[in-house]
Amino acid sequence: MNAYTPHRAGRPGGGAATPPPLPAPDPIDGNARRRAPVRLGHFTAGQLGRLCDVAGIGAWQRTAHQRVLTELLGPAAALPVDGPPPSPSFVSDDHTPVEFSLTFPAGAAPVLRVLVDPGFAARSLPDNARTAWAAVGRLAAQWGFGLGELTRLSDLFLPPEPHGPLTLWCALELRPTGPTGVKLYLNPGARGAERAMETVTEAMTRLGHARAFEPVRREVAARSPEGHGFMFFALDVGPWAEPRVKVYVVHPGATAADAADAARAVPGACPERVADLCRLVGGDGPFDRLPLVSCYSFTGADTHHPTGHGLHVPVRAYVRDDAEARDRAVRLLRRYGVPGEPVDHALAALTVRPLTAGVGLISYLSLVQAGRQAPRITTYFSSEAYRVLPPRQDTAPQGD
Question: Is 361 exposed, middle or buried (0-12, 13-18, 19+ CB in 10 A)?
């Protein structure tokens, strides 16, 4: 998950009809393009198709998911990637408006997600919001799900003159069987960063989670009196067994111990696991290059507390290159009894450049704890359609 302020964010696709042949990724980096222009839609759909193979998704579904990704990109799908991005999308560090991730549930196949900024081709934030709203509306009509909660919150997150680096992102969770899950990501600072606390509190009240949100509200207020600590507000829409509302909180300059403390608001979450993840990636901290991010989940199952906690560590800021990031990801998975081979397969699906040639292909590592469920690890991947960032020259502390 990349993010903004000052990181970037990340998630998955669905549809039908066979697109033209898809190009392979560039051999070395995103700056050296081939003779024929490579289009953003073909580039990212090719990556998605190969990741579907990693996740065990069959050919018919793969083609459908590629089509939906292209439709969500809209006019941006036809843009060549050998020119500058049309707008500074904060989905990823190089401004590619697509991010992929693999979640590894214990004892199950990895789950593929893709996150898209549907308004990427727009030249202004109001146009971005209108374009994204229209794209999500078409998807909802096509798949037959409602957008009632988004409509109830539109005055908070999609005002006529939105602020901030994003308006509305759409993520799709793809599985070999069953319907595609849809997630929407909104900007808590859409009415101004100084009103983010007010905006999120009002949204949680409208959705019936005011009491459960109170421990998080207190923590954000204590660490950021101005209320600027919120990164995303997210909604599950469509056919979820237990849809969630999620609030993402940034921890600037936090230590591993601080991150562990942030998990204590969630009953059943193990703070020691959170601290171990931090230490694996960057030692005890402080994590002051890019901040750690907590995600608090809320469902109807508990009206007094958040029902889940996830910690997202921006691994790309604390390793020299993607070879180191890959090693951290594999070590984390093995700690939880998950084989690391799918990470290698995913990296090969995204690029053929040497992992030592850049940093940021693996953007985040996260650990999610929710109720009695086994912990889940997620690895987030950048598309690198526009650019490969060079390896870091400053080295991070080594994890255990």
Answer: buried
Q: What is the DSSP string of 219-276?
A: HHHHH-TTS--EEEEEEEESS-SS--EEEEEEETT--HHHHHHHGGGSTT--HHHHHH
Give CA 334 to chain center in angstroms: 22
Cβ-Cβ contacts under 8 Å for 272 (sequence gap 6 or more): 260
Measuring CA to CA, which residue among 70, 33, 26, 31 is closest to residue 48?
70
Strand locations in the chain, DSSP E?
A: 98-104, 111-116, 168-174, 181-186, 230-237, 245-251, 292-298, 308-313, 362-370, 376-382
Measured between alpha carbons, how far is 55 from 344 in angstroms, rounded to an integer?
12
pLDDT greater than 80 at residue 20: no
190, two tokens: 């859409």
- Whether the upstream peptide bond of residue 286 has omega within 30° of 0, thus cis, is yes
Higher pLDDT, 188 or 398: 188
Query: Are 233 and 223 in contact, with CB atoms under 8 Å apart?
Result: no
10 Å CB burial of residue 144 (0-12, 13-18, 19+) is exposed
Cis peptide before 159 (omega within 30 of 0): no
pLDDT band at 177 (very low <50, low <70, confident <90, very high): confident
Q: Quick one: how far is CA 142 from the chain centroid?
A: 24
* Cα separation, 278 vs 202, whole angstroms: 32
* Dist CA 137 CA 209 (whole Å): 25
Mean pLDDT score of the chain: 89
Residue 98 contacts residue 383 (beta carbons within 8 Å):
yes
In Å, what is the CA distance from 163 to each residue of 138, 188, 236? 25, 10, 23
pTM of the model: 0.90
Interatomic CA distance for residues 271 and 259, integer angstroms: 8
Enter the tokens of residue 129. 């919001």
> 355 to each of 112, 245, 337, how far by Cα in Å?
21, 36, 24
What residues form DSSP beta bridges with 99?
115, 382
Contact at 8 Å (CB) between 59 and 15? no
Burial state string for 176-201 with b = 16 or more CB within 10 A and e = fewer than 16: eeeebbbbbbbbbbbbebebbbebbb
